Amino acid sequence: MKPVASTSEQILDVAQSLIVAGGYNGFSYADIADAIGIRKASIHHHFPTKAELVSALVDRYRQQTELGLKSLQAQSASPADQLQSYVDFWKACIGNASLPFCVCAMLAGEMPMLPDEVASRVRGHFHHLAEWLTSVLQAGAKQHLFRLDKRPEQEAQMLMASVHGAMLSARAFDDPGLFAAIVEPQIARLRAPVR
Amino acid sequence: MKPVASTSEQILDVAQSLIVAGGYNGFSYADIADAIGIRKASIHHHFPTKAELVSALVDRYRQQTELGLKSLQAQSASPADQLQSYVDFWKACIGNASLPFCVCAMLAGEMPMLPDEVASRVRGHFHHLAEWLTSVLQAGAKQHLFRLDKRPEQEAQMLMASVHGAMLSARAFDDPGLFAAIVEPQIARLRAPVR
DNA sequence: GTTTACCTATCTACTAGTAGGTAGACGTTC
DNA sequence: GAACGTCTACCTACTAGTAGATAGGTAAAC
Protein backbone atom coordinates (compact mmCIF):
# COMPACT_ATOMS: atom_id res chain seq x y z
CA MET A 1 0.00 0.00 0.00
CA LYS A 2 1.41 3.27 -1.13
CA PRO A 3 1.31 5.94 1.58
CA VAL A 4 -1.00 8.86 0.82
CA ALA A 5 1.02 11.71 -0.59
CA SER A 6 1.00 15.03 1.26
CA THR A 7 -1.16 17.77 -0.17
CA SER A 8 1.82 19.74 -1.47
CA GLU A 9 3.14 16.62 -3.18
CA GLN A 10 -0.29 16.01 -4.70
CA ILE A 11 -0.31 19.59 -5.95
CA LEU A 12 3.07 19.11 -7.60
CA ASP A 13 1.99 15.75 -9.05
CA VAL A 14 -1.07 17.24 -10.71
CA ALA A 15 0.79 20.36 -11.81
CA GLN A 16 3.47 18.18 -13.38
CA SER A 17 1.05 16.16 -15.45
CA LEU A 18 -0.73 19.34 -16.52
CA ILE A 19 2.54 21.01 -17.54
CA VAL A 20 3.60 17.93 -19.46
CA ALA A 21 0.30 18.15 -21.33
CA GLY A 22 0.14 21.87 -21.98
CA GLY A 23 3.11 23.80 -20.64
CA TYR A 24 3.37 26.68 -18.20
CA ASN A 25 0.34 28.55 -19.51
CA GLY A 26 -1.60 25.36 -20.02
CA PHE A 27 -2.83 24.97 -16.47
CA SER A 28 -4.36 27.04 -13.68
CA TYR A 29 -4.72 26.88 -9.93
CA ALA A 30 -8.38 26.03 -10.52
CA ASP A 31 -7.40 22.96 -12.56
CA ILE A 32 -5.22 21.69 -9.74
CA ALA A 33 -7.80 22.48 -7.08
CA ASP A 34 -10.50 20.56 -8.96
CA ALA A 35 -8.22 17.58 -9.54
CA ILE A 36 -7.37 17.01 -5.87
CA GLY A 37 -10.54 18.34 -4.28
CA ILE A 38 -9.36 21.43 -2.44
CA ARG A 39 -9.81 25.16 -3.02
CA LYS A 40 -7.65 27.46 -5.08
CA ALA A 41 -6.69 29.47 -2.00
CA SER A 42 -5.29 26.35 -0.35
CA ILE A 43 -2.80 25.96 -3.16
CA HIS A 44 -1.63 29.52 -2.58
CA HIS A 45 -1.01 28.50 1.03
CA HIS A 46 1.53 25.91 -0.14
CA PHE A 47 2.85 27.84 -3.15
CA PRO A 48 2.16 31.58 -2.93
CA THR A 49 2.73 32.23 -6.62
CA LYS A 50 2.63 30.21 -9.81
CA ALA A 51 6.32 30.90 -10.44
CA GLU A 52 7.16 29.48 -7.00
CA LEU A 53 5.01 26.43 -7.61
CA VAL A 54 6.69 25.63 -10.90
CA SER A 55 10.12 26.41 -9.46
CA ALA A 56 9.48 23.92 -6.66
CA LEU A 57 8.25 21.47 -9.26
CA VAL A 58 11.41 21.76 -11.35
CA ASP A 59 13.55 21.49 -8.21
CA ARG A 60 11.78 18.28 -7.25
CA TYR A 61 12.03 16.96 -10.81
CA ARG A 62 15.73 17.64 -10.91
CA GLN A 63 16.22 16.00 -7.52
CA GLN A 64 14.36 12.90 -8.72
CA THR A 65 16.41 12.87 -11.89
CA GLU A 66 19.67 13.18 -9.98
CA LEU A 67 18.62 10.32 -7.73
CA GLY A 68 17.55 8.20 -10.69
CA LEU A 69 20.76 8.72 -12.61
CA LYS A 70 22.84 7.99 -9.52
CA SER A 71 20.96 4.75 -8.96
CA LEU A 72 21.65 3.81 -12.58
CA GLN A 73 25.32 4.22 -11.88
CA ALA A 74 24.99 2.10 -8.75
CA GLN A 75 23.03 -0.65 -10.49
CA SER A 76 25.21 -1.17 -13.52
CA ALA A 77 28.89 -0.52 -13.68
CA SER A 78 28.91 -0.49 -17.47
CA PRO A 79 28.41 2.94 -19.05
CA ALA A 80 26.75 1.23 -22.01
CA ASP A 81 24.12 -0.30 -19.73
CA GLN A 82 23.64 3.02 -17.93
CA LEU A 83 22.90 4.75 -21.19
CA GLN A 84 20.54 2.00 -22.26
CA SER A 85 18.71 2.17 -18.91
CA TYR A 86 18.30 5.93 -19.29
CA VAL A 87 16.71 5.48 -22.70
CA ASP A 88 14.63 2.55 -21.47
CA PHE A 89 13.25 4.74 -18.70
CA TRP A 90 11.82 7.19 -21.21
CA LYS A 91 10.72 4.38 -23.50
CA ALA A 92 8.61 3.03 -20.65
CA CYS A 93 7.27 6.47 -19.66
CA ILE A 94 6.18 7.21 -23.20
CA GLY A 95 4.91 3.70 -23.76
CA ASN A 96 2.56 3.62 -20.78
CA ALA A 97 1.78 7.33 -21.02
CA SER A 98 2.66 7.85 -17.35
CA LEU A 99 5.03 10.74 -18.12
CA PRO A 100 4.97 11.05 -21.87
CA PHE A 101 7.26 14.08 -21.96
CA CYS A 102 10.12 15.58 -19.99
CA VAL A 103 8.87 18.48 -17.86
CA CYS A 104 11.99 20.48 -18.56
CA ALA A 105 11.87 19.84 -22.30
CA MET A 106 8.32 21.14 -22.26
CA LEU A 107 9.29 24.24 -20.32
CA ALA A 108 12.43 24.80 -22.39
CA GLY A 109 10.22 25.36 -25.41
CA GLU A 110 8.54 28.21 -23.60
CA MET A 111 11.80 29.64 -22.28
CA PRO A 112 11.32 33.16 -23.71
CA MET A 113 8.28 33.81 -21.57
CA LEU A 114 9.00 31.85 -18.44
CA PRO A 115 9.61 33.73 -15.18
CA ASP A 116 13.38 34.07 -14.68
CA GLU A 117 13.40 31.87 -11.60
CA VAL A 118 11.83 29.03 -13.58
CA ALA A 119 13.92 29.54 -16.72
CA SER A 120 17.19 29.37 -14.82
CA ARG A 121 16.14 26.13 -13.16
CA VAL A 122 15.22 24.59 -16.48
CA ARG A 123 18.57 25.62 -17.88
CA GLY A 124 20.15 24.03 -14.82
CA HIS A 125 18.47 20.71 -15.55
CA PHE A 126 19.72 20.77 -19.14
CA HIS A 127 23.26 21.48 -17.97
CA HIS A 128 23.07 18.69 -15.44
CA LEU A 129 21.74 16.16 -17.90
CA ALA A 130 24.36 17.13 -20.48
CA GLU A 131 27.07 16.65 -17.89
CA TRP A 132 25.79 13.26 -16.88
CA LEU A 133 25.61 12.07 -20.48
CA THR A 134 29.08 13.47 -21.14
CA SER A 135 30.55 11.59 -18.20
CA VAL A 136 28.88 8.33 -19.18
CA LEU A 137 30.10 8.65 -22.77
CA GLN A 138 33.58 9.54 -21.56
CA ALA A 139 33.72 6.55 -19.21
CA GLY A 140 32.42 4.27 -21.94
CA ALA A 141 35.00 5.52 -24.43
CA LYS A 142 37.78 4.88 -21.93
CA GLN A 143 36.56 1.29 -21.61
CA HIS A 144 36.32 1.01 -25.43
CA LEU A 145 32.57 0.41 -25.19
CA PHE A 146 31.83 3.48 -27.25
CA ARG A 147 33.38 4.88 -30.37
CA LEU A 148 32.98 8.67 -30.25
CA ASP A 149 33.32 10.58 -33.51
CA LYS A 150 33.24 13.92 -31.72
CA ARG A 151 34.20 15.30 -28.34
CA PRO A 152 32.13 13.65 -25.60
CA GLU A 153 30.43 16.99 -24.78
CA GLN A 154 29.24 17.27 -28.35
CA GLU A 155 28.14 13.64 -28.58
CA ALA A 156 26.19 14.17 -25.36
CA GLN A 157 24.42 17.19 -26.86
CA MET A 158 23.58 15.20 -29.98
CA LEU A 159 22.15 12.38 -27.94
CA MET A 160 20.12 14.70 -25.72
CA ALA A 161 18.66 16.44 -28.76
CA SER A 162 17.73 13.07 -30.23
CA VAL A 163 15.93 12.08 -27.07
CA HIS A 164 13.96 15.33 -26.86
CA GLY A 165 13.25 15.39 -30.57
CA ALA A 166 12.07 11.79 -30.39
CA MET A 167 9.67 12.68 -27.58
CA LEU A 168 8.25 15.44 -29.73
CA SER A 169 7.88 13.19 -32.76
CA ALA A 170 6.24 10.43 -30.72
CA ARG A 171 3.73 13.03 -29.58
CA ALA A 172 3.26 14.70 -32.97
CA PHE A 173 2.69 11.39 -34.78
CA ASP A 174 0.84 9.94 -31.81
CA ASP A 175 3.12 6.92 -32.05
CA PRO A 176 4.91 5.93 -28.82
CA GLY A 177 7.03 3.38 -30.66
CA LEU A 178 8.61 6.13 -32.70
CA PHE A 179 10.67 7.18 -29.68
CA ALA A 180 12.64 3.95 -29.66
CA ALA A 181 12.86 3.86 -33.45
CA ILE A 182 14.65 7.19 -33.35
CA VAL A 183 16.80 6.86 -30.25
CA GLU A 184 17.92 3.23 -30.40
CA PRO A 185 19.92 3.59 -33.64
CA GLN A 186 21.66 6.62 -32.13
CA ILE A 187 22.98 4.70 -29.16
CA ALA A 188 23.66 1.66 -31.33
CA ARG A 189 25.90 3.91 -33.46
CA LEU A 190 27.90 4.87 -30.36
CA ARG A 191 28.24 1.25 -29.29
CA ALA A 192 29.48 0.10 -32.66
CA PRO A 193 32.72 -1.86 -32.28
CA VAL A 194 35.92 -0.17 -33.34
CA ARG A 195 36.49 -0.77 -37.03
CA MET B 1 10.45 48.70 -51.01
CA LYS B 2 8.44 45.91 -49.44
CA PRO B 3 4.68 46.27 -49.95
CA VAL B 4 2.71 46.79 -46.77
CA ALA B 5 1.26 43.50 -45.62
CA SER B 6 -2.50 43.20 -45.35
CA THR B 7 -4.00 43.35 -41.88
CA SER B 8 -4.78 39.65 -41.80
CA GLU B 9 -1.19 38.86 -42.81
CA GLN B 10 0.07 41.18 -40.09
CA ILE B 11 -2.16 39.40 -37.58
CA LEU B 12 -0.72 36.05 -38.61
CA ASP B 13 2.84 37.44 -38.52
CA VAL B 14 2.45 38.67 -34.96
CA ALA B 15 0.59 35.56 -33.85
CA GLN B 16 3.36 33.41 -35.30
CA SER B 17 6.12 35.17 -33.41
CA LEU B 18 4.06 35.03 -30.22
CA ILE B 19 3.38 31.30 -30.64
CA VAL B 20 7.04 30.65 -31.32
CA ALA B 21 7.83 32.43 -28.06
CA GLY B 22 5.14 30.94 -25.84
CA GLY B 23 2.89 28.44 -27.58
CA TYR B 24 -0.86 28.32 -28.09
CA ASN B 25 -1.76 29.56 -24.63
CA GLY B 26 1.08 32.07 -24.61
CA PHE B 27 -0.68 34.81 -26.50
CA SER B 28 -4.02 36.57 -26.56
CA TYR B 29 -6.06 38.63 -29.02
CA ALA B 30 -5.14 41.68 -26.93
CA ASP B 31 -1.42 41.02 -27.47
CA ILE B 32 -1.88 40.97 -31.23
CA ALA B 33 -4.15 44.01 -31.21
CA ASP B 34 -1.59 46.01 -29.24
CA ALA B 35 1.26 44.94 -31.50
CA ILE B 36 -0.32 46.09 -34.76
CA GLY B 37 -2.41 48.97 -33.42
CA ILE B 38 -5.95 47.77 -33.99
CA ARG B 39 -8.71 46.59 -31.66
CA LYS B 40 -9.41 43.07 -30.48
CA ALA B 41 -12.76 43.00 -32.25
CA SER B 42 -11.08 43.65 -35.58
CA ILE B 43 -9.06 40.48 -35.19
CA HIS B 44 -12.26 38.56 -34.62
CA HIS B 45 -13.48 40.04 -37.90
CA HIS B 46 -10.62 38.35 -39.72
CA PHE B 47 -10.42 35.21 -37.58
CA PRO B 48 -13.63 34.54 -35.63
CA THR B 49 -12.03 32.17 -33.12
CA LYS B 50 -8.56 31.51 -31.81
CA ALA B 51 -8.65 27.97 -33.17
CA GLU B 52 -9.43 29.33 -36.64
CA LEU B 53 -6.65 31.89 -36.38
CA VAL B 54 -4.05 29.30 -35.47
CA SER B 55 -5.40 26.88 -38.07
CA ALA B 56 -4.99 29.55 -40.74
CA LEU B 57 -1.53 30.23 -39.37
CA VAL B 58 -0.47 26.60 -39.62
CA ASP B 59 -1.97 26.35 -43.12
CA ARG B 60 0.05 29.37 -44.22
CA TYR B 61 3.17 28.01 -42.54
CA ARG B 62 2.81 24.69 -44.27
CA GLN B 63 2.23 26.40 -47.62
CA GLN B 64 5.39 28.48 -47.13
CA THR B 65 7.31 25.35 -46.16
CA GLU B 66 6.07 23.46 -49.18
CA LEU B 67 7.10 26.35 -51.42
CA GLY B 68 10.48 26.64 -49.74
CA LEU B 69 11.26 22.94 -50.04
CA LYS B 70 10.16 22.91 -53.68
CA SER B 71 12.44 25.84 -54.46
CA LEU B 72 15.30 23.96 -52.80
CA GLN B 73 14.70 21.11 -55.20
CA ALA B 74 14.64 23.56 -58.11
CA GLN B 75 17.81 25.35 -57.02
CA SER B 76 20.05 22.38 -56.41
CA ALA B 77 19.74 19.08 -58.16
CA SER B 78 21.88 17.31 -55.57
CA PRO B 79 19.94 15.79 -52.66
CA ALA B 80 22.99 16.40 -50.48
CA ASP B 81 22.83 20.13 -51.20
CA GLN B 82 19.09 20.18 -50.66
CA LEU B 83 19.50 18.67 -47.23
CA GLN B 84 22.29 21.10 -46.39
CA SER B 85 20.17 24.05 -47.53
CA TYR B 86 17.30 22.90 -45.34
CA VAL B 87 19.56 22.80 -42.30
CA ASP B 88 21.18 26.10 -43.28
CA PHE B 89 17.76 27.73 -43.38
CA TRP B 90 17.16 26.88 -39.74
CA LYS B 91 20.72 27.72 -38.81
CA ALA B 92 20.13 31.24 -40.16
CA CYS B 93 16.71 31.59 -38.51
CA ILE B 94 18.07 30.60 -35.13
CA GLY B 95 21.23 32.62 -35.60
CA ASN B 96 19.51 35.92 -36.32
CA ALA B 97 16.57 35.13 -34.03
CA SER B 98 14.08 35.89 -36.81
CA LEU B 99 12.24 32.60 -36.34
CA PRO B 100 14.13 30.82 -33.59
CA PHE B 101 11.78 27.85 -33.48
CA CYS B 102 9.52 25.89 -35.78
CA VAL B 103 5.87 26.85 -35.19
CA CYS B 104 4.74 23.27 -35.61
CA ALA B 105 7.40 21.90 -33.28
CA MET B 106 6.19 24.37 -30.67
CA LEU B 107 2.57 23.37 -31.15
CA ALA B 108 3.42 19.66 -31.29
CA GLY B 109 4.62 19.91 -27.70
CA GLU B 110 1.18 21.10 -26.68
CA MET B 111 -0.63 18.52 -28.81
CA PRO B 112 -2.70 17.02 -25.96
CA MET B 113 -4.57 20.27 -25.37
CA LEU B 114 -4.75 21.79 -28.82
CA PRO B 115 -8.13 22.11 -30.55
CA ASP B 116 -8.57 19.14 -32.89
CA GLU B 117 -8.53 21.29 -36.01
CA VAL B 118 -5.13 22.68 -35.04
CA ALA B 119 -3.67 19.36 -33.87
CA SER B 120 -4.52 17.60 -37.12
CA ARG B 121 -2.84 20.36 -39.12
CA VAL B 122 0.30 20.13 -37.01
CA ARG B 123 0.36 16.40 -37.52
CA GLY B 124 -0.03 17.05 -41.23
CA HIS B 125 3.05 19.26 -41.27
CA PHE B 126 5.09 16.59 -39.52
CA HIS B 127 3.97 13.98 -42.03
CA HIS B 128 4.78 16.25 -44.92
CA LEU B 129 8.25 17.11 -43.62
CA ALA B 130 9.00 13.46 -42.90
CA GLU B 131 7.99 12.56 -46.45
CA TRP B 132 10.17 15.27 -47.97
CA LEU B 133 13.19 14.21 -45.94
CA THR B 134 12.55 10.58 -46.84
CA SER B 135 12.43 11.35 -50.54
CA VAL B 136 15.62 13.44 -50.38
CA LEU B 137 17.46 10.70 -48.51
CA GLN B 138 16.16 8.09 -50.91
CA ALA B 139 17.26 10.09 -53.96
CA GLY B 140 20.65 10.72 -52.38
CA ALA B 141 21.12 7.05 -51.59
CA LYS B 142 20.32 6.12 -55.18
CA GLN B 143 23.04 8.52 -56.34
CA HIS B 144 25.46 7.09 -53.74
CA LEU B 145 25.67 10.49 -52.01
CA PHE B 146 24.31 9.08 -48.78
CA ARG B 147 24.99 5.90 -46.92
CA LEU B 148 21.81 4.95 -45.04
CA ASP B 149 22.15 2.51 -42.16
CA LYS B 150 18.37 2.20 -41.81
CA ARG B 151 15.35 2.46 -44.05
CA PRO B 152 15.05 5.98 -45.47
CA GLU B 153 11.80 6.59 -43.54
CA GLN B 154 13.58 5.84 -40.29
CA GLU B 155 16.65 7.91 -41.16
CA ALA B 156 14.28 10.79 -41.98
CA GLN B 157 12.63 10.48 -38.58
CA MET B 158 16.00 10.45 -36.87
CA LEU B 159 17.10 13.54 -38.73
CA MET B 160 13.87 15.38 -38.02
CA ALA B 161 14.13 14.60 -34.33
CA SER B 162 17.70 15.88 -34.31
CA VAL B 163 16.63 19.15 -35.88
CA HIS B 164 13.79 19.71 -33.41
CA GLY B 165 15.84 18.58 -30.45
CA ALA B 166 18.65 20.88 -31.54
CA MET B 167 16.23 23.83 -31.67
CA LEU B 168 15.16 23.03 -28.16
CA SER B 169 18.72 22.76 -26.88
CA ALA B 170 19.75 26.00 -28.58
CA ARG B 171 16.89 27.66 -26.75
CA ALA B 172 17.45 25.92 -23.41
CA PHE B 173 21.17 26.71 -23.35
CA ASP B 174 20.59 30.12 -24.97
CA ASP B 175 23.29 29.18 -27.49
CA PRO B 176 22.31 29.54 -31.17
CA GLY B 177 25.53 27.86 -32.27
CA LEU B 178 24.49 24.67 -30.54
CA PHE B 179 21.96 23.98 -33.29
CA ALA B 180 24.67 23.53 -35.92
CA ALA B 181 26.91 21.65 -33.50
CA ILE B 182 24.18 19.05 -33.08
CA VAL B 183 22.76 18.82 -36.58
CA GLU B 184 25.87 19.11 -38.77
CA PRO B 185 27.47 15.88 -37.56
CA GLN B 186 24.20 14.07 -38.19
CA ILE B 187 24.12 15.02 -41.85
CA ALA B 188 27.88 14.52 -42.12
CA ARG B 189 27.33 10.98 -40.95
CA LEU B 190 24.85 10.37 -43.77
CA ARG B 191 27.19 11.89 -46.36
CA ALA B 192 30.12 9.74 -45.28
CA PRO B 193 31.60 7.95 -48.28
CA VAL B 194 30.87 4.27 -48.65
CA ARG B 195 33.45 2.30 -46.74
C1' DG C 1 -0.67 29.64 22.12
C1' DT C 2 1.49 29.53 18.10
C1' DT C 3 1.68 27.13 13.79
C1' DT C 4 -0.28 24.55 10.08
C1' DA C 5 -3.69 23.58 6.83
C1' DC C 6 -7.44 24.47 5.13
C1' DC C 7 -11.75 27.33 4.25
C1' DT C 8 -15.14 31.31 2.27
C1' DA C 9 -15.36 35.33 0.02
C1' DT C 10 -13.53 38.60 -2.68
C1' DC C 11 -10.44 41.37 -5.75
C1' DT C 12 -8.47 43.13 -10.02
C1' DA C 13 -6.96 42.03 -14.42
C1' DC C 14 -7.55 39.57 -18.30
C1' DT C 15 -9.70 35.84 -21.44
C1' DA C 16 -12.26 34.82 -25.89
C1' DG C 17 -16.08 36.22 -27.98
C1' DT C 18 -20.47 39.20 -29.29
C1' DA C 19 -23.62 43.07 -30.50
C1' DG C 20 -24.23 46.71 -33.01
C1' DG C 21 -22.61 50.82 -35.29
C1' DT C 22 -19.72 53.80 -38.70
C1' DA C 23 -17.21 55.14 -42.72
C1' DG C 24 -15.59 54.32 -47.02
C1' DA C 25 -15.19 51.49 -51.39
C1' DC C 26 -17.60 49.17 -55.14
C1' DG C 27 -20.93 48.27 -58.43
C1' DT C 28 -25.68 48.88 -60.23
C1' DT C 29 -29.27 51.06 -62.08
C1' DC C 30 -31.85 54.95 -63.32
C1' DG D 1 -23.34 61.03 -62.86
C1' DA D 2 -26.15 60.75 -58.93
C1' DA D 3 -28.61 57.74 -55.96
C1' DC D 4 -28.94 53.06 -54.10
C1' DG D 5 -27.74 48.89 -51.79
C1' DT D 6 -24.04 45.96 -50.35
C1' DC D 7 -19.64 44.70 -48.66
C1' DT D 8 -15.33 45.26 -46.10
C1' DA D 9 -12.83 46.77 -42.40
C1' DC D 10 -12.75 48.66 -38.62
C1' DC D 11 -14.69 50.71 -34.27
C1' DT D 12 -16.94 51.19 -29.15
C1' DA D 13 -18.98 48.86 -25.68
C1' DC D 14 -20.14 44.91 -23.64
C1' DT D 15 -20.65 39.90 -21.93
C1' DA D 16 -19.63 35.71 -19.13
C1' DG D 17 -16.05 33.36 -17.55
C1' DT D 18 -11.33 32.64 -15.77
C1' DA D 19 -6.68 34.14 -14.32
C1' DG D 20 -3.60 34.61 -10.21
C1' DA D 21 -3.69 36.47 -5.86
C1' DT D 22 -5.41 38.34 -1.14
C1' DA D 23 -7.92 38.99 3.38
C1' DG D 24 -9.52 37.09 7.08
C1' DG D 25 -11.55 33.20 9.56
C1' DT D 26 -11.75 28.25 11.65
C1' DA D 27 -10.20 24.17 13.66
C1' DA D 28 -7.04 20.95 14.87
C1' DA D 29 -2.08 19.75 15.95
C1' DC D 30 2.20 20.44 18.34
From TrEMBL, chains A, B:
Q: What InterPro entries does the database record attribute to this sequence?
A: Homeodomain-like_sf, HTH_TetR, Tet_transcr_reg_TetR-rel_C_sf, TetR_C
Keywords, comma-separated and alphabetical: DNA-binding, Transcription, Transcription regulation
One Pfam entry for this protein is TetR_C_13
Does Transcription count among this protein's keywords?
A: yes
Name the domain of life: Bacteria
Q: Which residues bind DNA?
A: 28-47
Q: Which GO terms describe its molecular function?
A: DNA binding
Domain HTH tetR-type, which positions?
5-65
Query: Gene3D superfamilies, from UniProt?
Result: Tetracycline Repressor, domain 2
What name does UniProt use for this protein? TetR/AcrR family transcriptional regulator
Q: Tell me the lineage of the source organism.
A: Bacteria, Pseudomonadati, Pseudomonadota, Alphaproteobacteria, Hyphomicrobiales
